[in-house]
Task: structure prediction
Amino acid sequence: MIEIPVIRWGRPYESLERADVVHFETGEVMARMHQANAGLVQMDMRKAAQARDVLRQIPCTELIRKCQQAAELFLTATMPLGNGTQTPEQFCEIQSATTGLPLNMARGNMSKNAFVLSHMGEILDALTRGLPLDILTRGYGMESRGVMVSYQAASPVLGLVLPSNSPGVHTLWLPAIPLQIGLVLKPGSSEPWTPYRMYEAFAAAGVPREAFSLYPGPHDVGNKVLETCQRAMIFGGTATVEKYAGDPRVQAHGPGFSKILIGDDVVDRWEDYLDVLVRSVLINGGRSCINCSGIWASRHTEAIADAIARRIGPVTALPTTDPDAALAAFTIPGAAEAMNSQIDDGCQSEAVTEMTAKYRDGDRLIRKERCDYLRPTVLHVSDCKDPMANTEYMFPFVSVVQCPQKQMLSRIGTTLVGTAITADEQWIRELVDARHIDRLNVGPIPTCALNWLQPHEGNIIDFLFRNRAFQNSLPPAH
Amino acid sequence: MLVAAAIGKRQSPDGEGKTVASLDEKISAHRQALDQQTREIVQWHFGEDTGCEFWLEKKKTFDFDPLTDVRGFDDLKKFPLFEDDWLRGGPMRRWVPQPYQDKAIYVFETGGTTGIPKSRVVVEDHWIDYEMFSATLPDKSFPRGSNWLMLGPSGPRRLRLAIEHLAQFRGGICFCVDLDPRWVVKLLKKGKVEEAKAYSAHVIDQAMAILSANNDIQCMFTTPKLLEALALRLMDEGSSVEQSGIKGIFCGGTEFTQQWFRFACEELLGPNVYITPTYGNTLMGLACGKPFDPADNYKITYYAPQPRAVVEVVDFEDHTKLVGYGETGRVKLYTMTKELFVPGFLERDEGEREKPHDKYPWDGVSSVRPYHVFAKTTTVGVY
Result:
């Protein structure tokens, strides 16, 4: 049995409380996670400054090189895991086995995390707009254009309360290490694999273990991480996002409500973009905040919805080992059933038509002994004010909404990724000014196609560092 | 007397002439004492001249006669389960045995943040319980004559008066900090985490003030959460629980896990501060922790103050059936004092049944935690 300890600034700590991580289908115990208690976190956070101190002894450029080594190790090496070891294939297998994510998606997410890590130099150069990184180390310095700048670390460590259902989100915290910010990770209960493997990869690449703490444990451990870290991220639903709204210390990542808006100038050629639409909805089992949950157009919406439904309606649950598996299991009892009921309720509206049913051999909800699946669902919504026009679920689900172009921006609501397929310059200007769209794509770009050189839900540099004034000589007379 | 008779039976194996009883003999003697207590208490609570109005009325609904059909502890299973809802609302005097009607009566509340609270009447039980508990405390860590800090829930609970009595019984003075856990529960249910934290800080501020005021406080009652908050505050200010002068801590009131016990001993307190876990409630009194033994690896085992109260670990589906030793079941409590009779009450906790111990030669319960069926809906350990 794999026993995985708590990590306290690089030191393994064997807890007296352990939690089983089980296979999502069979219930077989795959590993035993040692459980931290909240007091342990608070005790350790009194020494958080040491994590940054130890990282600051290594130049950022050297840490970036170590990130590249870590990426290679993460992707290819047999790494330590608790009292055992883990090959890359075992990593994907156990992640799939405990989360219900198909093996091909586990592999995909693994590659994505490694990609970001191996391109860290370019990413930080882009996100800092070319700032010499030793300025972040020292807190101030002269730019090449002769301007004194100061970036003060807002926290010596970044806290993360991580999810179990989406291994792709780990890309968000990887830049912390080369920025010389320590990591305090509270792994998801069924997906501790990426944080632990990444920790071992960093350590094997020569990043000091003292910069990391990993605290598997119950909810109060996550709460303590959020409370004691001056900068932290949490992943959750709308309620979580609302809870931390306005708290500058916490970045809450929730549903994306990502959308594709098709302009009047191109909507008559909607079939040209069908692949983009389908890919945006279906990829990664529809689990990501960057999956498309709404497609908005002023006309042809029924035809668009029908065409997508024809493509994704037949998709069904396959074994996680099947290379064609496109759906992830819901492992929390009752979760899929609740979503299914909500969708059925929503379909009672006169404005809503379920388009997938005729292409599906059976019900949307597939019940299994220890997990459930929801099959892809496309709704046609003829009234953009209907609640189903702006809904997101963690499976391939999309509402194709009929809405005049001139009303779209006022109706779509908060949108993480907004892809606007249009060449209408006036509308593009309005889209650029729309502050409720976080990532804007103009053109037929799938919502899930991220350029890592761009900020995601805010620039992590701005989150972790405060750009403030610093003077060590008199300013010019004025 | 029965216990003493058993103790005098044979020579100890060390050959020094001490007379000690084997554990089996102690278990047997204590079982006899429990049966005796059961008979006496049932006669008292169902006697026409002694019983309280509640039980005398209840007796009319039974298909057996407690006065003649209860001959030992096992016969308590003839009674229906005690329902704590019976404790909601008055008149409270219906619970007071007739000979105590002219005595000074306390009423203590338990649980609940809304609605009519559950209450029990007490004359002297809280004093007796804590005097018995006092005998289990080591004088080295709880020096007689030293003062106490009571850092825990007060208000309508019996805890404040009980701790104060414990301090006075041991020759000390008790300093108290006020705490209303129901307000904390309300804050948390409304998602007002920051306000709850501010309230906790306000409570710790008061404790810090008392500890810094030359009050010779060497003993403390507190809950796990408050002890953690106090210890970390002291550390943040460059001090520690030990440096504040505290030698002994009596800790309880909320869930007390094995891991937390170890964390407290190893990291919050250090080797020179003694901590004794307890488990109890207003109905039962106070169950003591088994003396610390490194071999237990911080597992906490509680023993009820028999024969005044009994803890059983029973099958989740059949509360009349004990689970095997080491097996998990629901905690069932019995109280048999002259002030209160509870013939079997299913607590909102579960744990493992433990074998008798030399110091407490009757069944214990370990790793007590919220009953898994209720755990998801209960706000626990808020203070």
